[in-house]
Amino acid sequence: MRNRLKALIAGGIAAAILLAAQIVPARITVDSGIALNQMARTGKLAGAVRLLESQYRFDTPAGLRALHDFSLVVLRQGLSDPDPFERCYAATALASYGDWSGREIIGQALDSPNLFIQKAAVEGLAQAENSDALGILERFYRLSGPVSQTIALQALAEVKAPAVMPILVSAAKDPNSSGTFWAVNGLGRMGDRAALPYLQGLLTKSIDPMVRTEAAHSMILLGDRSLYTTDALEEGLGSSDSEIAAEAALALGDAHDPATVEVLEATVSSDRAAEQLRMAAAVALTHYGSRQGMPLLVAALNDHKRRATYLPGMLDHLDFVVGRPLILRAISSSEQQLRLTAYEMIGRSGGEADIAVLSEALAHTQEPIDQAQIAWSLGRIGRPEAIPVLLEVLQNPSSEVRYTAAEALARIADKQAHN
Q: What is the dihedral of CA 353, 357, 358, 360, to 10 degrees?
């Protein structure tokens, strides 16, 4: 056969051979895609994963496309899940990739009298961050009552798209409304200094000390470190309300002003300061590279009341590098909310080395909520090394875990395809 092939090539039939070589893999790819889709639709995910891994390499454009498409096929199965939360998750996750096959489900969730289902839909649309999703979210906000509007603002505070800014500015016009805090929070996170005049006006007009403190915090995040802003934070730090004082301490951490280190250190060491405030000051110090407050945070991690009450809300404000040892310890906590927060922090700030950390945590938990959060975090890290782990997680019997893994795989495939 080898000699015969050489003769054919020498006889001028090389082009035909090359054409055939191109056609056969294409046919195999198409057939594999059909088979993968059929297996995913019928729930034969173990076989589908084996076929996917045998036919594709995930360091090639074709392999990444196949992984992306397969992941969305799995997500579409979630549209018929009996759990309304899983249907909503699948529908909004698909929408983030421009697939609106779950539009009706999203509409039903937004109209639901169950505020938790409403919240799931709103948060999913906010995370999608495409123009269609944000348009739906804006209409929902405009047509809703105060409670649903606050739910929408909480979700919009996480979005950095310019289209969101008019909504947040409008919501912040009333200096004392229930949604103002979240609107102000979102304006600070957005990073657009055009929001500064609105925040400055709010700082002047509001009589709500928490709103004033959050306005000053957002101004700090936008680069306004004027005396007027820091005075407002110092005012908040001295509040008898420990929540306001703690928020002011966290803001001083984001200020990156060395002049505040002494105040924060004194707060951590104070026997008269509220526990919540001392912990916030300890967290703030990590943004200055200081570990002075870490013993206090470790003690809180070992104390049931403090780790359940205060620590989850503090943990995601830690500087990731300085606070990493504490975050890794929190993964083993008996408090699920603390574990989930730690997983999320690793997803948002971790890197390749943290894939092994999350994989080990995955191997030691049977809790579907934990497994789903770990899958989410692996997707946010976005490294190809997480693909084999997530393909294994994709076969989990829990729909919550399965659909989260599918969305994470689609995210990684998209990220790697554009690198």
A: 140
Cα 54 → chain centroid: 31
Written as one letter, the residue type at 269 is S
Residue closest to 170 by CA, chosen among 208, 143, 131, 198: 198
The answer to whether the beta carbons of residues 51 and 32 sit under 8 Å apart is yes
Contact 96, 130 (CB under 8 A): yes
CA distances in angstroms from 412 to 247, 354, 408, listed in the order given: 34, 15, 6
CA–CA gap between residue 185 and residue 211 (Å, rounded): 9
Query: In Å, how far are 7, 27, 208 from 17, measured between CA atoms?
Result: 12, 16, 77
Q: What is the 3-state secondary structure (H, E, C) of 122-180?
A: HHHHHHHCCHHHHHHHHHHHHHCCHHHHHHHHHHHCCCCCHHHHHHHHHHCCCCCCCCH
Residues 6+ apart with CB under 8 A from 152: 122, 137, 140, 141, 144
Separation in Å, CA 133 to CA 97, 267, 395: 11, 44, 29
Residue 353: CB atoms within 10 A of its CB come to 10
Query: Helix, strand or coil for residue 381?
Result: helix
Token pair for residue 145? 């009552």
pLDDT in tens, 209-231: 999 999 999 999 999 988 888 88
Helix, strand, coil percentages (3-state) for the chain, rounded to 5, are 80, 0, 20
- pLDDT tens digits along 148-205: 999 999 999 989 888 899 989 988 877 666 788 999 999 999 889 999 999 998 888 8
Burial of 257 per CB tally in 10 Å (0-12, 13-18, 19+):
middle
Phi then psi dihedrals of residue 101, to 5 deg = -65, -15
Between CA 15 and CA 23 the distance in angstroms is: 12
The alpha carbon torsion through 96, 101, 104, 106 (nearest 10 deg) reads: -20
Say if CB 149 and CB 171 are below 8 A apart: yes
* Measured distance CA(292)–CA(262) in Å, rounded: 11
Question: What are the tokens at 71?
Answer: 């992941």
pTM comes to: 0.87
Determine the Cα–Cα distance for residues 229 and 135; give it in Å rounded to an integer.
34
